[in-house]
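Bumping with the actual sequence this time:
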Amino acid sequence: MFDNFDDREKARIQEEIERVHGSAQDSLFGLSSSKLSRRTVLRLLAASGLLTLGDVLAACAPAQLQAPPAAAPTAEPAATAATAFDPKNPTFPVTTDVLLDAGYETGTLADLERMQESPRDEPRYGSPVCATPTDESELIDPDTIEFAVVPTEDPALYRDTFEPLLENMRNETGKEVRYNPLSSYAAQVEAMRSERLHVAGFSTGTVPFAVNLACAVPFSIQVSEDGAFGYRLWLITQADNDAINGIQDLAGKTVAHADPTSNSGNLAPRALFTNQGVKPDEDYEVVYSGGHEQSALGVFHGDYDAAPVCSTCYARVVRAGQIDGEAIKVVWASDPFPTTGFSYRYNLRPELQEGIRATFLDYDYSDTGIAEVFEGRGTFIEIDYATVWDIILQTQESLGVEYETGELEG
């Protein structure tokens, strides 16, 4: 490919490689197999001024400069826009334009139904949800029900937002209900443990702490009118990369993880991929890209072989026109990660528990500020903690999380 370039031109290309990568790389010339992808090489040549846009387009066209010898296909081709995709029974690989058209970047009611058709008897990690005491003396009957939601920079922000729900709770329980703007995750858990908080919306990762430390009973999450909730972990690669069609194919590859502290970009893949028999850093090389957007763009441009990304983060990059969804395929997708888990203290009197559940499950808040603030999620549906939070518990088990309030951040 480089035989027609003189020494001066090769030097310009090498300078561009060093500029893009920030340090000197092995020379691109004389290598039987370049360490850089074809897309990256073409971008470098174009940036060096040695290829025109027409040259790049021609090189990327179906008629390649050096077509490989014909070979029998080794895997099913990725489903494309012309191929039907069934979200209820997904099979991979599938190009991302198909998944985005199907709304598969979020969880759906079909996912919840599928997961809860085979519920877990108990959580895979940590304690099961506390049962309501049978001893009357252990039950509590507060004069005022204290309610809190996920802390924000302005803890009082949601006071007006949740007023329609709080008014319904007053009617359903016959109690005064007060919004309690707690300032941290740990403060929420500690308040419920000490019976100073009775109903709360805990953040995704905090829910298991609340179950294990405060005997919280998670019973509901928010969904939109069409049942969308949460996000997924997608494992992406180039649509024309026939070498990767599943997690097992990552062996020996270079895979971009977003950031060491990222849940879906690093922590969850380390747990979920290991459970599938592939260990990051051992079976494949991990390179930190700096974020989900950088991982997605790096895969698109051929800088990485693959990347685990947050599906909704990836969707934003596509919708911004930075990535062609047809050029990227998903070879594996997780169950959806749930969002805020609404829970009550286990030893509230049974009639109060029933009233609280009715407040969430029997009313539609789609025309209230709740839906407006929470991106259309104005409906609450019932969930089973051990089943729906299993994907979170897998990650926490893999990381050896200890359920202590000191482990909570924020």
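The tokens above came from a reply further down the thread. The first strand starts at residue 94 and ends at 95.
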